[in-house]
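I am writing to request your help with a piece of structural work I have in hand. I am sending you one protein, given as its amino acid sequence and as whole-number tokens for its backbone shapes. Kindly check, if you would, that the fold set down in the tokens agrees with what the sequence suggests. You will find the record immediately after this paragraph:
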Amino acid sequence: MYQPWADKVDLRRFSILGGEPTLHPKLKDWMIGLAELWPKANRYITTNGTYWPAWIEEVAKKYRYTIIINCHGPTNGSLNKMVLQKLKDAFGPLKPTKKLKRTGGLYLKSKMGAKLELFKTTDGFHKSAIKDESTLEVYDSDPVKAHRLCDMKKCHHFIDGKLWKCGVVKLLPEFVRQKNKTPPAFYDQYSPLGHENIDQQKLDDLSQKPIEQCRGCSDNKADWERKAYTSDFKKNSRPVW
């Protein structure tokens, strides 16, 4: 599916996302195949750290994937404790190499040499795409202002062989429908890019210009500020190494 893209587009960095990618039976094939298509790219897997295939460490090391563990969970730290124990069971003792300045998380390395990045739950979330959580109402904003504030405007998504401006445009309507609600019609009016007629101008516009669907996100700066939650992550992280 992605061979035609690899023939035309260089990627500096990509990450395999989910859902939870470690649960997918073809993850190993994806990791190997994508590494062969984009051998120069920095490669990542983003996981919540709650499940580890037996082969993950060996394949991550061989094909130079960094495993990002982004653990969002209850403020009482119960999810953190489980993730840390599963890390220890899957990788054994992990050596911290340095702290992540932006989040206070850690860079880790396994005995085999696999690289991991462990984020704190205090990363938090911002309330940019859902205005009212009870009704799943989205915003009706100025798309130019919303795009200017967006911290995902250069985080493009390959989904089913097409290139999307952002994951929200594709996945938010699916999420809303799963909750038996009707998403705004303007989301379905977006056409993702295909490899058949891609050119540099279209790629530049993808990163630099807002789209009509940006109106569904907030144009208020306060809604883009991450709301951190308290966590006992730090004191519970010590037993891992």
About this structure: The two ends are 40 Å apart (CA to CA). Residues 143-224 form one domain.
